[in-house]
Automatic annotation (TrEMBL):
Pfam family, one: THAP
UniProt keyword terms in alphabetical order: Coiled coil, DNA-binding, Metal-binding, Zinc, Zinc-finger
MF GO annotations: DNA binding; zinc ion binding
Stored Gene3D superfamilies: THAP domain
Name of the featured protein: THAP-type domain-containing protein
Keyword set includes Manganese: no
PROSITE patterns referenced in this protein's UniProt entry, alphabetically: ZF_THAP
THAP-type domain ranges (all copies): 1-80
Coiled-coil stretches noted in the UniProt entry, renumbered to this chain: 173-221
PANTHER family to which the protein is assigned, alphabetical: AGAP005574-PA, THAP-TYPE DOMAIN-CONTAINING PROTEIN
Keyword rRNA-binding: no
């Protein structure tokens, strides 16, 4: 850690970006205070160099400052607000990203095949079922392998159920598709029928007209 940055992991305060009113303080010089700081900062700093490291004022309570905003001699950093989350994020994300990225390159079937292949190599722990309680938990004395095996079994069960749902959904979609096609062809048939009926009506009307004409002629002839 440099003299320019706060030594607390996850804290981004430095002499370059510190907001107004925030200061960077050097470490104490007495052994007594250094011990207190060491205790307070263990797991909080990647490196603590007594002569170079600085800690910013955000890690000290209000009571640690005098009226001039100077740090009192007996002050110990105690405030480490949100950095825990930031730290965890920093530690885990790179690896998680790598594995996630690699996995996302596999197709679903490749992934399933890979899992099945790996599962063949894994053996069920001895007396597995004896270590599982009625509410599907592991007994306290179950080995890690047994606990993991139970988790794998649960995941597998869930996968199978999801797969079933997928298959059912596919079937539903097929039925819907078929119904839609039928409806479409029915509509086509109806349309065609309507055209046919229209034609028939037209023909009948023409015939009727001819008949009326003939009747008229006949009536005219009769009345003579
Ligand atoms: Zn800081």
């Amino acid at each position: 850690m440099s003299q320019n940055h706060c030594a607390v992991q996850g804290c981004r305060i430095s002499i370059f970006n510190k907001p107004f009113g925030v200061s960077l303080f050097p470490c104490p010089t007495s052994n007594e205070m250094r011990n207190k700081w060491l205790h307070a900062l263990r797991n909080r700093c990647a490196l603590l160099d007594w002569s170079r490291s600085r800690v910013c004022s955000k890690h000290f309570e209000h009571k640690c400052f005098d009226s001039q905003k100077r740090l009192k001699d007996n002050s110990v950093p105690t405030l480490f607000p949100v950095y825990k989350r930031v730290l965890r994020h920093h530690n885990i994300t790179p690896d998680k990203n790598k594995v996630d990225k690699l996995m996302s390159k596999l197709t679903q079937s490749e992934l399933i095949a890979d899992i099945k292949n790996s599962m063949k190599k894994v053996k069920e722990p001895v007396n597995f079922e004896n270590f599982v309680t009625e509410d599907l938990k592991c007994r306290p004395d179950a080995s890690i392998e047994t606990q993991l095996w139970l988790l794998i079994k649960k995941q597998d069960n869930l996968n199978n159920r999801l797969l079933e749902h997928v298959v059912q959904n596919k079937k539903h979609i097929e039925v819907l598709q078929k119904n839609m096609d039928e409806t479409k062809s029915t509509k086509k048939d109806v349309d065609q029928n309507v055209e046919t009926y229209k034609y028939i009506i037209k023909c009948l009307q023409e015939k009727l007209a001819t008949l009326e004409e003939q009747i008229e002629i006949l009536t005219a002839v009769e009345s003579r």
